[in-house]
Protein backbone atom coordinates (compact mmCIF):
# COMPACT_ATOMS: atom_id res chain seq x y z
CA UNK A 1 0.00 0.00 0.00
CA UNK A 2 2.75 2.42 1.13
CA UNK A 3 4.94 1.51 -1.82
CA UNK A 4 2.12 2.04 -4.31
CA UNK A 5 1.54 5.57 -2.93
CA UNK A 6 5.26 6.36 -3.27
CA UNK A 7 5.24 4.94 -6.81
CA UNK A 8 2.23 7.08 -7.69
CA UNK A 9 3.95 10.24 -6.41
CA UNK A 10 7.16 9.38 -8.27
CA UNK A 11 5.13 8.91 -11.46
CA UNK A 12 3.42 12.27 -10.85
CA UNK A 13 6.82 13.91 -10.19
CA UNK A 14 8.16 12.49 -13.46
CA UNK A 15 5.08 13.78 -15.33
CA UNK A 16 5.40 17.21 -13.77
CA UNK A 17 9.11 17.47 -14.50
CA UNK A 18 8.29 16.65 -18.10
CA UNK A 19 5.88 19.57 -18.12
CA UNK A 20 8.61 22.17 -17.79
CA UNK A 21 7.39 23.91 -20.89
CA UNK A 22 6.48 27.51 -20.10
CA UNK A 23 4.13 29.76 -22.03
CA UNK A 24 4.37 33.11 -23.78
CA UNK A 25 2.40 36.06 -22.41
CA UNK A 26 0.04 35.81 -25.39
CA UNK A 27 -0.86 32.22 -24.38
CA UNK A 28 -2.08 33.00 -20.85
CA UNK A 29 -5.07 34.94 -19.50
CA UNK A 30 -4.60 38.70 -19.50
CA UNK A 31 -4.93 38.45 -15.72
CA UNK A 32 -1.61 36.62 -15.38
CA UNK A 33 0.44 38.85 -17.67
CA UNK A 34 3.02 41.17 -16.13
CA UNK A 35 4.14 44.36 -17.92
CA UNK A 36 7.38 43.78 -19.85
CA UNK A 37 7.43 40.02 -19.09
CA UNK A 38 6.90 38.24 -22.40
CA UNK A 39 7.63 34.61 -21.55
CA UNK A 40 8.30 32.08 -18.77
CA UNK A 41 4.66 31.77 -17.62
CA UNK A 42 3.59 28.51 -16.02
CA UNK A 43 0.61 26.62 -17.36
CA UNK A 44 -2.71 27.09 -15.61
CA UNK A 45 -5.31 24.52 -14.55
CA UNK A 46 -2.67 22.00 -13.41
CA UNK A 47 -2.53 19.99 -10.15
CA UNK A 48 -1.34 21.56 -6.85
CA UNK A 49 1.67 19.26 -7.14
CA UNK A 50 2.65 20.86 -10.46
CA UNK A 51 2.88 24.30 -8.83
CA UNK A 52 4.82 23.05 -5.80
CA UNK A 53 7.34 21.33 -8.06
CA UNK A 54 7.55 24.51 -10.18
CA UNK A 55 9.48 26.08 -7.25
CA UNK A 56 12.44 23.99 -8.44
CA UNK A 57 11.94 24.72 -12.14
CA UNK A 58 12.87 27.74 -14.19
CA UNK A 59 9.92 30.04 -14.80
CA UNK A 60 9.13 33.71 -14.27
CA UNK A 61 8.05 33.13 -10.63
CA UNK A 62 11.08 31.10 -9.49
CA UNK A 63 13.12 34.10 -8.30
CA UNK A 64 10.08 35.71 -6.63
CA UNK A 65 9.53 32.51 -4.64
CA UNK A 66 13.17 31.92 -3.71
CA UNK A 67 13.89 35.51 -2.65
CA UNK A 68 11.22 35.18 0.05
CA UNK A 69 12.14 31.59 0.94
CA UNK A 70 15.66 32.85 1.67
CA UNK A 71 14.09 35.78 3.57
CA UNK A 72 12.20 33.33 5.83
CA UNK A 73 15.47 31.60 6.70
CA UNK A 74 17.21 34.95 7.40
CA UNK A 75 14.34 36.16 9.62
CA UNK A 76 14.38 32.89 11.59
CA UNK A 77 18.15 33.22 12.03
CA UNK A 78 17.70 36.80 13.28
CA UNK A 79 14.99 35.83 15.80
CA UNK A 80 17.11 32.91 16.96
CA UNK A 81 20.21 35.11 17.37
CA UNK A 82 18.42 37.38 19.89
CA UNK A 83 17.58 34.37 22.06
CA UNK A 84 21.25 34.36 23.20
CA UNK A 85 20.79 37.78 24.75
CA UNK A 86 17.14 38.01 25.75
CA UNK A 87 14.73 35.65 27.43
CA UNK A 88 11.75 35.78 25.13
CA UNK A 89 9.32 34.52 27.79
CA UNK A 90 10.24 37.02 30.51
CA UNK A 91 12.01 40.00 28.96
CA UNK A 92 9.59 42.75 27.76
CA UNK A 93 12.39 44.41 25.73
CA UNK A 94 12.52 41.37 23.46
CA UNK A 95 8.77 41.03 22.82
CA UNK A 96 8.61 43.67 20.04
CA UNK A 97 11.48 41.88 18.26
CA UNK A 98 9.54 38.62 18.50
CA UNK A 99 6.22 40.24 17.46
CA UNK A 100 7.89 41.93 14.48
CA UNK A 101 9.61 38.65 13.59
CA UNK A 102 6.29 36.75 13.57
CA UNK A 103 4.69 39.42 11.35
CA UNK A 104 7.65 39.27 8.94
CA UNK A 105 7.53 35.47 8.79
CA UNK A 106 3.80 35.80 8.03
CA UNK A 107 4.36 38.26 5.14
CA UNK A 108 7.17 36.22 3.58
CA UNK A 109 5.23 32.93 3.92
CA UNK A 110 2.05 34.39 2.42
CA UNK A 111 4.11 35.86 -0.43
CA UNK A 112 5.80 32.52 -1.15
CA UNK A 113 2.40 30.77 -1.15
CA UNK A 114 0.83 33.37 -3.44
CA UNK A 115 3.68 33.36 -5.98
CA UNK A 116 3.76 29.53 -5.93
CA UNK A 117 0.12 28.68 -6.67
CA UNK A 118 -1.57 31.81 -8.05
CA UNK A 119 -1.42 30.54 -11.65
CA UNK A 120 -3.65 27.54 -10.91
CA UNK A 121 -6.89 29.38 -11.71
CA UNK A 122 -8.18 32.97 -11.83
CA UNK A 123 -10.17 32.41 -8.61
CA UNK A 124 -7.08 31.12 -6.80
CA UNK A 125 -5.06 33.97 -8.30
CA UNK A 126 -7.29 36.59 -6.65
CA UNK A 127 -7.53 34.69 -3.35
CA UNK A 128 -3.75 34.19 -3.21
CA UNK A 129 -3.02 37.85 -3.78
CA UNK A 130 -5.60 38.87 -1.17
CA UNK A 131 -3.61 36.69 1.25
CA UNK A 132 -0.41 38.34 -0.05
CA UNK A 133 -1.94 41.77 0.68
CA UNK A 134 -2.82 40.53 4.18
CA UNK A 135 0.95 39.83 4.37
CA UNK A 136 1.67 43.48 3.52
CA UNK A 137 -0.81 44.44 6.28
CA UNK A 138 1.08 42.13 8.65
CA UNK A 139 4.36 43.79 7.73
CA UNK A 140 2.90 47.23 8.57
CA UNK A 141 1.54 45.92 11.87
CA UNK A 142 4.95 44.42 12.66
CA UNK A 143 6.67 47.75 11.96
CA UNK A 144 4.11 49.45 14.21
CA UNK A 145 4.88 46.99 17.01
CA UNK A 146 8.66 47.32 16.80
CA UNK A 147 8.76 51.10 16.31
CA UNK A 148 6.18 51.85 19.00
CA UNK A 149 7.59 49.64 21.73
CA UNK A 150 11.33 49.85 20.95
CA UNK A 151 12.01 53.17 19.22
CA UNK A 152 9.24 55.63 20.19
CA UNK A 153 9.90 59.06 21.54
CA UNK A 154 8.87 58.70 25.25
CA UNK A 155 6.25 61.51 25.03
CA UNK A 156 4.72 59.95 21.95
CA UNK A 157 4.60 56.58 23.68
CA UNK A 158 2.81 58.04 26.73
CA UNK A 159 0.22 60.04 24.78
CA UNK A 160 -0.73 57.30 22.31
CA UNK A 161 -0.24 54.08 24.28
CA UNK A 162 -4.01 53.38 24.42
CA UNK A 163 -4.89 53.95 20.78
CA UNK A 164 -1.77 53.01 18.84
CA UNK A 165 -2.15 49.23 18.59
CA UNK A 166 -5.89 49.21 17.66
CA UNK A 167 -5.13 51.89 15.04
CA UNK A 168 -2.16 49.82 13.83
CA UNK A 169 -4.40 46.76 13.21
CA UNK A 170 -7.12 48.89 11.59
CA UNK A 171 -4.62 50.45 9.15
CA UNK A 172 -3.19 46.99 8.37
CA UNK A 173 -6.70 46.00 7.34
CA UNK A 174 -7.08 49.21 5.24
CA UNK A 175 -3.90 48.23 3.35
CA UNK A 176 -5.21 44.73 2.71
CA UNK A 177 -8.64 45.93 1.60
CA UNK A 178 -7.24 48.82 -0.50
CA UNK A 179 -4.83 46.54 -2.38
CA UNK A 180 -7.50 43.84 -2.87
CA UNK A 181 -10.10 46.30 -4.19
CA UNK A 182 -7.50 47.91 -6.48
CA UNK A 183 -6.78 44.50 -8.01
CA UNK A 184 -10.46 43.64 -8.38
CA UNK A 185 -11.42 47.01 -9.83
CA UNK A 186 -8.79 47.43 -12.57
CA UNK A 187 -7.87 45.15 -15.48
CA UNK A 188 -4.44 44.53 -16.98
CA UNK A 189 -2.66 46.47 -18.31
CA UNK A 190 -3.27 48.19 -14.98
CA UNK A 191 -3.53 52.00 -14.97
CA UNK A 192 -1.25 53.92 -12.61
CA UNK A 193 -4.41 54.71 -10.58
CA UNK A 194 -4.31 51.14 -9.30
CA UNK A 195 -0.75 51.46 -7.96
CA UNK A 196 -1.71 54.84 -6.54
CA UNK A 197 -4.63 53.30 -4.62
CA UNK A 198 -2.30 50.58 -3.29
CA UNK A 199 0.41 53.09 -2.37
CA UNK A 200 -2.07 55.48 -0.70
CA UNK A 201 -3.64 52.80 1.49
CA UNK A 202 -0.12 51.61 2.43
CA UNK A 203 1.10 55.20 2.76
CA UNK A 204 -1.43 56.02 5.51
CA UNK A 205 -0.18 53.10 7.57
CA UNK A 206 3.46 54.01 6.85
CA UNK A 207 2.93 57.59 8.07
CA UNK A 208 1.27 56.47 11.33
CA UNK A 209 3.96 53.89 12.15
CA UNK A 210 6.69 56.45 11.35
CA UNK A 211 5.21 59.12 13.69
CA UNK A 212 6.80 57.75 16.91
CA UNK A 213 10.18 58.13 15.15
CA UNK A 214 9.41 61.50 13.60
CA UNK A 215 9.14 62.94 17.14
CA UNK A 216 12.74 61.86 17.76
CA UNK A 217 13.96 63.45 14.51
CA UNK A 218 12.13 66.70 15.35
CA UNK A 219 13.55 66.81 18.86
CA UNK A 220 17.08 66.13 17.66
CA UNK A 221 16.75 68.79 14.96
CA UNK A 222 15.73 71.41 17.54
CA UNK A 223 18.17 70.42 20.27
CA UNK A 224 21.61 71.97 20.13
CA UNK A 225 24.37 69.41 20.23
CA UNK A 226 22.19 66.55 18.89
CA UNK A 227 23.50 65.07 15.64
CA UNK A 228 21.02 63.44 13.25
CA UNK A 229 23.69 60.78 12.76
CA UNK A 230 22.50 59.32 16.11
CA UNK A 231 19.39 58.30 14.15
CA UNK A 232 21.27 57.03 11.10
CA UNK A 233 20.17 53.43 11.85
CA UNK A 234 16.58 54.56 11.16
CA UNK A 235 17.51 56.84 8.24
CA UNK A 236 19.09 53.85 6.48
CA UNK A 237 15.82 51.91 6.89
CA UNK A 238 13.84 54.75 5.24
CA UNK A 239 16.30 54.98 2.31
CA UNK A 240 16.15 51.25 1.50
CA UNK A 241 12.37 51.22 2.04
CA UNK A 242 11.81 54.07 -0.44
CA UNK A 243 14.05 52.46 -3.05
CA UNK A 244 12.08 49.20 -2.65
CA UNK A 245 8.81 51.11 -3.22
CA UNK A 246 10.24 52.52 -6.44
CA UNK A 247 10.77 49.00 -7.82
CA UNK A 248 7.36 47.87 -6.47
CA UNK A 249 5.51 50.58 -8.33
CA UNK A 250 7.55 51.10 -11.52
CA UNK A 251 8.06 47.62 -13.08
CA UNK A 252 11.57 48.86 -13.86
CA UNK A 253 13.65 47.60 -15.70
CA UNK A 254 11.40 45.16 -17.62
CA UNK A 255 8.97 47.83 -18.77
CA UNK A 256 11.84 49.72 -20.51
CA UNK A 257 13.37 46.56 -22.01
CA UNK A 258 10.46 44.09 -22.51
CA UNK A 259 11.46 40.45 -22.66
CA UNK A 260 15.00 40.99 -21.34
CA UNK A 261 14.21 40.22 -17.67
CA UNK A 262 11.56 37.51 -18.04
CA UNK A 263 13.30 35.14 -15.65
CA UNK A 264 15.75 37.21 -13.58
CA UNK A 265 15.98 40.92 -12.79
CA UNK A 266 12.31 41.98 -12.80
CA UNK A 267 11.41 44.99 -10.66
CA UNK A 268 9.22 42.83 -8.41
CA UNK A 269 12.14 40.50 -7.71
CA UNK A 270 14.36 43.50 -6.84
CA UNK A 271 11.51 44.74 -4.60
CA UNK A 272 11.51 41.38 -2.75
CA UNK A 273 15.27 41.62 -2.17
CA UNK A 274 15.13 45.24 -0.99
CA UNK A 275 12.10 44.49 1.25
CA UNK A 276 14.14 41.71 2.88
CA UNK A 277 17.12 44.05 3.41
CA UNK A 278 14.75 46.69 4.87
CA UNK A 279 13.31 44.11 7.29
CA UNK A 280 16.77 42.99 8.45
CA UNK A 281 17.78 46.63 8.96
CA UNK A 282 14.60 47.21 11.00
CA UNK A 283 15.58 44.34 13.31
CA UNK A 284 19.03 45.95 13.68
CA UNK A 285 17.61 49.47 14.26
CA UNK A 286 15.34 48.23 17.07
CA UNK A 287 18.19 46.22 18.57
CA UNK A 288 20.41 49.35 18.59
CA UNK A 289 17.64 51.35 20.32
CA UNK A 290 17.06 48.62 22.90
CA UNK A 291 20.74 48.16 23.74
CA UNK A 292 22.28 51.63 23.19
CA UNK A 293 19.45 54.12 23.68
CA UNK A 294 17.48 52.50 26.49
CA UNK A 295 18.38 55.41 28.82
CA UNK A 296 16.52 57.94 26.66
CA UNK A 297 13.72 55.66 25.40
CA UNK A 298 11.03 53.50 26.95
CA UNK A 299 12.05 50.04 25.77
CA UNK A 300 10.72 47.85 28.58
CA UNK A 301 7.01 48.68 28.44
CA UNK A 302 5.94 46.28 25.69
CA UNK A 303 2.52 44.75 26.24
CA UNK A 304 2.62 41.07 25.24
CA UNK A 305 -1.17 40.80 25.40
CA UNK A 306 -1.62 43.66 22.90
CA UNK A 307 1.04 42.25 20.56
CA UNK A 308 -0.44 38.73 20.53
CA UNK A 309 -4.00 40.05 20.28
CA UNK A 310 -3.06 42.27 17.29
CA UNK A 311 -1.47 39.36 15.41
CA UNK A 312 -4.38 36.96 16.04
CA UNK A 313 -7.06 39.59 15.46
CA UNK A 314 -5.55 40.58 12.12
CA UNK A 315 -5.48 36.94 10.98
CA UNK A 316 -9.17 36.63 11.88
CA UNK A 317 -10.12 39.91 10.15
CA UNK A 318 -8.16 38.92 7.03
CA UNK A 319 -9.94 35.56 6.70
CA UNK A 320 -13.35 37.25 7.16
CA UNK A 321 -12.42 39.86 4.51
CA UNK A 322 -11.30 37.21 2.00
CA UNK A 323 -14.58 35.31 2.55
CA UNK A 324 -16.64 38.51 2.24
CA UNK A 325 -14.92 39.38 -1.07
CA UNK A 326 -15.68 35.97 -2.64
CA UNK A 327 -18.85 37.07 -4.50
CA UNK A 328 -16.96 40.03 -6.07
CA UNK A 329 -14.07 37.73 -7.01
CA UNK A 330 -16.44 35.22 -8.64
CA UNK A 331 -18.04 37.98 -10.71
CA UNK A 332 -14.64 39.32 -11.74
CA UNK A 333 -13.36 35.85 -12.69
CA UNK A 334 -16.26 35.43 -15.15
CA UNK A 335 -15.17 38.65 -16.88
CA UNK A 336 -11.48 37.61 -16.86
CA UNK A 337 -12.22 34.26 -18.55
CA UNK A 338 -13.26 36.20 -21.66
CA UNK A 339 -9.93 38.05 -21.83
CA UNK A 340 -7.56 35.39 -23.15
ZN1 LIG B 1 5.70 39.50 -4.40
TrEMBL record:
TM regions (residue ranges): 48-75, 95-112, 133-151, 163-184, 304-325
Protein keywords: Membrane, Metal-binding, Transmembrane, Transmembrane helix, Zinc
Protein name, entry field: Uncharacterized protein
InterPro entries the record matches: AdipoR/HlyIII-related
Membrane-topology annotation of the record: Multi-pass membrane protein
Homology family: Belongs to the ADIPOR family.
Highest taxon of source: Eukaryota
Subcellular location: Membrane
Lineage of the organism: Eukaryota, Metazoa, Spiralia, Lophotrochozoa, Mollusca
Gene Ontology CC entries for this record: membrane
Pfam families listed in its UniProt record: HlyIII
Binding, Zn(2+): 115, 268, 272
Amino acid sequence: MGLSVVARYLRQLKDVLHQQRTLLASQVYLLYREPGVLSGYRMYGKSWFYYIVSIFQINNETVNIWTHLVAIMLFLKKIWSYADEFHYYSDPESWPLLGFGICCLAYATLSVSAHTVHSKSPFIHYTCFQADYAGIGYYGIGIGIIVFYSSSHPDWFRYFSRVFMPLNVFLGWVVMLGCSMAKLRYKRPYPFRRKLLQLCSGGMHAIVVALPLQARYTECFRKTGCSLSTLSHHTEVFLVLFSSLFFFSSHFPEKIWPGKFDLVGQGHQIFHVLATITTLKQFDAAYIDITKHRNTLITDKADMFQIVLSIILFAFISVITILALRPIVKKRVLQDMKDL
